[in-house]
Design a protein that fits this description.
single chain, about 140 residues
Amino acid sequence: MEFTRRDTIALGLGAAALTVLPFRVAASADDKIAEFTGGADMKAEGVTLTAPEIAENGNTVPITVDAPGAASILVLATGNPTPGVAQFNFGPLAGSHAATTRIRLAGTQDVVAIAKFEDGSFARAASTVKVTIGGCGG
């Protein structure tokens, strides 16, 4: 493959633009929590997080979150490079305010569920999951 002078200049300008443009850094778990709650206090009861104590494979870790009366539930994996795992929103016709899913964990870490209730209050639950085989490149 031969490069012309125009190709070389275009590649050089593209590389220069990449060094000048700001890179978006993944938000930490605390930043995600603050964004979701607006800095409000959280209760310790009102949301139930069910996760295994030990996960043999971090690629598929089953979890269940349940928060009766919640308008929204945020799930975070604090040790993942991108901590935001899922956000479940419930409308007025929702039969139950619970969700079950499988998540990916990079290693042993805390899984956190925060529920936002219709009255504007928040509740938090956390569970530590020990991963024997990492799911995110481990």
